Amino acid sequence: xxxxxxxxxxxxxxxxxxxxxxxxxxxxxxxxxxxxxxxxxxxxxxxxxxxxxxxxxxxxxxxxxxxxxxxxxxxxxxxxxxxxxxxxxxxxxxxxxxxxxxxxxxxxxxxxxxxxxxxxxxxxxxxxxxxxxxxxxxxxxxxxxxxxxxxxxxxxxxxxxxxxxxxxxxxxxxxxxxxxxxxxxxxxxxxxxxxxxxxxxxxx
Length: 204
Fold this sequence. Notes:
The chain has helices at residues 4-15, 19-31, 33-45, 48-56, 58-62, 66-89, 105-117, 120-128, 141-166, 171-175, 178-200. The protein is mainly α.
């Protein structure tokens, strides 16, 4: 069974503006709704190498004992606090340049894959966060890890696609208003900080 905590935290991670969201939104603004869907697909596929890299070392992590678990948890807390800090200070989170030249689907997907493939924070996310939701007594921990990863990828695809599809509708109101941009930025930062506090207080 997938916990509510996992779904909530994953939603916060996916929704928070980052390079993938910015790329999808800017593509939707400059090249239209269909292009934004290709961009969302590419960003989602770019998660796969990070997921595989994390899964390779998962078994060792789960059997390394309480000290390793605490270190892993601290890494997760530090990661979430880092994201909160970076989100808080990033005043260009919803900025986008709608003047980009049109791009064919295949190069567009390739560019989006490369964008996430070169994002080291995704590997840290899979290594430091997802294992918190995999019990060391689970008879098939790698299967569980894979399931959670696929759910995370599905949420990424859905949310990124939604960002792209709504980019035109929210262009005047969001991209044209510094006040709304700041409120969204502060809200995401606060959500990350809250998740860090919850993780810090969690027990194995």
